[in-house]
Amino acid sequence: MSTPDALAALQSRLRYHFTQPALLARALTHRSFSADHNERLEFLGDSVLGLAVAHLLYEALDELPEGDLSRVRAQLVRQDSLHRLASELGLPALLRLGEGELRSGGQRRPSILADALEAIIGAVYLDGGPEAASALVRRLFDGVRINPALSAAAKDAKTSLQEWLQGRKMPLPQYEVTQVAGAAHRQTFEVACRVAAFDLQRLGQGASRRAAEQAAAAAMLQALQHHPKA
What we know:
Blueprint: H1 4-14, H2 21-27, H3 39-60, H4 66-77, H5 79-88, H6 99-103, H7 110-128, H8 130-140, H9 149-153, H10 157-166, E1 174-181, E2 188-195, E3 200-206, H11 209-225
Antiparallel strand pairs: 1-2, 2-3
């Protein structure tokens, strides 16, 4: 839970200290915990994140056309990337969740963690302005090597997996929704991707079926790259 000491430690990791600490507490509050939750901050932070990453890529990849820049940005701000950053910041231990979400493992759910990180970005924007929020985003992605190769890596995972299998004359993968959680307006989908030729299955989660399929396909591609028979 978000104790004052824990919030102070988080601000040190963010390298940003709030003049309005209540904004940070709200950013870590899920709707299952309180009516004063983080969804509006997440809405704001999503836009701030997209603009800050677009500016970063515009500066760093001045030789790439718009389409490639868009694919790289999508790669950087997707749920999996934000989930990883949120985990590195220690957000799972700081989230304020209702009892039901806690019991179901909500503190580790990628969608909740990604949303909380976006909410923190929105909170920094309100507390310190656009320059402070942009600086935070740049620090968050400081460990990511921004180079033209990211454009190739950003290629649609389902397409890449299909091309990989077709190139080896293997049947196409199968996708199946295995779980749908959350309220109707805020659902999280879990999809299984199966490749029968290798008897492999990988799961992916996302805010839509398509996003979950992409996440599952990306996980499958990674598994195939390390498979001894691939």
